[in-house]
Design a protein that fits this description.
86% helix; 0% strand; 2 domains; globular; mainly alpha; 480 residues
Length: 480
């Protein structure tokens, strides 16, 4: 939903102010480090509660414990960003058009919004663990619509400033937080006794949380250090261009996130080994669904990046400026998406050490590379490092996972889930790119992209075993 409004934000705020929104996205990423594994732990334990492995009293005590810790962290974060706002505006960023006082004020508001979003994620994970994804999606969609349309309204009728933008985001976060809390507490069974902060409950999950936290720290180094360095090296305007490319390609994760959220509770329930065949079916179904949806969208971005950007922003100069960057980032994001379901499977089994080890090796190799490449080659050099990182993830992380989990499914995964569908999508996208005429108007370009997307999606669906089997079943039922 947010992507729809980005061209409007740039129109009213300017690309330099949009760079501050990119900084905000990076801040949210780094705040995940302070999560200390609480979010995935709470989701996992809620799933165990629905499966009867936890009592109502223990899960409520765990929730209250994590809530308390999260609120303290959120408060300290908001205060810390407020205290550092002046230094960040004057000494770290390279703002050329925006007044430093406005940038500093924006950071102060940004700190509050970041803290609210942090607590949002805690509640969201708990609701997912309780398998209330449909209701969660309804609330999230409604709030995303309000965030976007409301922000546009604020810029048109109140004040076209980035500070006003973040004030509105903060108000919506408060409403979202209240709705999430209401859903969560109404879903959990009511208890006659009061809930309380419990060190016992915290100790029961600390090992898993510590593993997740260690893995998260390494992932943050690999995925966020580029934004920190580039925000220091590039002008705020050029960082805005980079942030726009990140936002567009990051939208590909729209497919991995909901699919992972939908299947993770199922993985957690089946991880005890009671029904291995059901676990295998769920694994392949979720993986093929990601390849169908994310693969199609990725091929459109990789092969038609400038066309997509022009249709999206109606700005030919901007489209030409960042199209090469979008192509490379989309490739890296696709490769990253291919590792998402295997990672969810590891977490569902409580196995965090593999990800930590793989990430530790990646940090040792790639973080120094980012420090060398970023000052010399800027955003494009960092984008290619993103591709290299995810080639490594897909090559090594999945290989070692299949040595311990779903051992007999390794080559079925590589062949049927990944290789055949992606080969088909690359072939179709390449042919369409070659056949697509040049110098079309924006309307015809948009229509062409829609037709090409449908063609790629159709071919990939026919290649993918799960969808093909379902179609054959329906055809057989109709014929009989």
């Amino acid at each position: 939903m947010g992507l729809v409004f980005l061209p409007t934000y740039i129109k009213y705020l300017g690309i330099e102010a949009y760079g501050l929104i990119g900084i905000f996205a990076a801040l949210q990423g780094w705040l995940t480090l302070l999560d200390m594994g609480m979010t995935p732990v709470l989701g996992r334990e809620m799933a165990r509660f629905t499966d009867g492995q936890r009592s109502a009293q223990s899960i409520r005590d765990l929730l209250r414990t994590i809530e308390t810790i999260a609120m303290v962290i959120a408060f300290l974060t908001a205060i810390g960003i407020w205290l550092a706002s002046g230094w960040l505006a004057s000494d770290w960023l390279k703002a050329e058009k925006l007044p430093l006082s406005l940038v500093a004020q924006t950071f102060s508001v940004m700190g509050v919004v970041t803290a609210l979003r942090f607590i949002e994620n805690i509640y969201r994970s708990a609701i997912i663990g309780l398998q209330r994804q449909v209701l969660l999606s309804l609330i999230s969609s409604a709030m995303a619509t309000l965030r976007g349309f409301g922000a546009v309204g604020v810029m048109i009728w109140v004040a076209p400033t980035v500070e006003a933008f973040f004030v509105w985001q903060g108000l919506i976060s408060i409403v979202t937080l209240a709705l999430f809390a209401m859903v969560l507490y109404k879903t959990l069974p009511h208890l006659p006794t009061t809930t309380h902060f419990s060190l016992v409950e915290l100790k029961s999950v600390w090992r898993f949380a510590a593993g997740i936290s260690g893995s998260t720290f390494l992932v943050l180094l690999l995925t966020q250090i580029d934004k920190i360095l580039l925000s220091r090296i590039l002008t705020l305007e050029h960082f805005g261009y980079y942030s726009l490319a990140i936002a567009l390609t990051g939208a590909l994760c729209f497919f991995t996130g909901p699919i992972g959220q939908a299947y993770y509770p199922r993985f957690a329930e089946l991880s005890s080994g009671r029904d291995e065949s059901a676990l295998i079916t769920a694994f392949h179904s979720s993986m093929q669904l990601i390849v169908i949806l994310m693969g199609t969208a990725s091929m459109v971005l990789i092969f038609f990046s400038e066309t997509v950007l022009f249709c999206w922003t109606h700005n030919s100069l901007l489209a030409h400026e960042i199209a090469p960057l979008v192509t490379v980032l989309a490739l890296g994001t696709l490769l990253n998406g291919l590792t998402w379901i295997p990672y969810q499977m590891q977490i569902a089994h409580g196995w965090t050490s593999l990800t930590i080890r793989v990430n530790a090796v990646a940090v040792i190799i790639l973080v120094p590379a980012i420090f060398v490449v970023a000052p010399r080659y800027g955003a494009m050099g960092v984008a290619w490092i993103w591709v290299a990182l995810n080639i490594g993830y897909f090559t090594f992380s999945t290989h070692f996972m299949f040595k311990r989990l779903l051992i007999a499914e390794k080559w079925n995964f590589y062949r049927s889930d990944v290789a055949f569908p992606l080969a088909a999508s690359v072939t179709v996208a390449g042919i369409c790119r070659w056949l697509m005429p040049h110098h079309l108007g924006v309307g015809w370009q948009l229509a062409s992209l829609c037709i090409i997307s449908i063609i790629i999606l159709t071919v990939v669906c026919l290649i993918t075993p799960v969808v093909r089997a379902e179609l054959q079943k329906k055809i057989s039922n109709l014929s009989s």
